[in-house]
Design a protein that fits this description.
By secondary structure, the chain is mainly alpha-helical. It contains seven helices and two strands, in the order H-E-H-H-H-E-H-H-H. 64% of the residues lie in helices and 4% in strands. The radius of gyration is 18 Å and the shape is elongated. The mean pLDDT is 90.
């Protein structure tokens, strides 16, 4: 039995999500948590986007695909998605116990600027966005495209809020220096 590309995407996303949640038990102790209106803004955007990009949403809305992706293109997109999700795991493993799903300062928190964090300040978000773009392209519905945009916007908002929080918690000298050297989400962008 051959698994179709759409089913492959679903299986990979479910596997990633389950493993991501299970790994949350390896996180270190939280010293301080950020809770602001921005926290709710990014969460709402991510939640709404997740509902829209889910494969059953287009069916419920009666949407048709905007374009067709052949099997070769679909499996290439599976590869792009896997690269994005592997980047999330590489970054998370590199962060170790400093990782958190919320904006927090962990005990003994420090600026991490090695591994994937030497190329982008938020490699987990960059990897998720990459995987989302591949997913939206293969789903080829307006709902999936809007969902990917909303989640990407939510992750960008979260990254901005996280940076403001860490600037205050870790000190502007350490964090501002890191921000001046390393782009936020897209590697190799020239810094101003």
């Amino acid at each position: 039995m051959i698994i179709r590309p759409n089913e492959t995407f679903e299986v990979i996303w479910i596997g990633w999500l389950v493993s991501w949640m299970a790994a949350s038990f390896w996180s270190g102790r939280t010293a301080k948590r950020a809770t602001t209106w921005e926290t709710w803004a990014y969460r709402v955007a991510i939640f709404a986007g997740a509902l829209l990009i889910a494969p059953w949403t287009a069916s419920l809305l009666g949407e048709k695909q905007i374009w067709d992706v052949d099997n070769t293109g679909a499996y290439a997109l599976v590869g792009v998605m896997l690269v994005g999700l592997l980047l999330t795991w590489l970054a998370r493993i590199h962060l170790g116990r400093l990782w958190s799903s919320a904006i927090t300062r962990k005990e003994q928190h420090r600026v991490v600027d090695t591994g994937p964090y030497a190329y982008v300040r938020h490699p987990i978000y960059a990897g998720i966005i990459t995987a989302l773009i591949a997913t939206a392209i293969i789903e080829a519905t307006l709902a999936a495209l809007v969902g990917a945009v909303l989640i990407s916007l939510g992750l960008w908002l979260k990254a901005r809020a996280e940076e403001r929080f860490l600037m205050g918690e870790l000190g502007p000298d350490a964090y501002r220096s890191y921000c001046s050297r390393v782009p936020m989400l897209i590697p190799f962008l020239p810094r101003h």
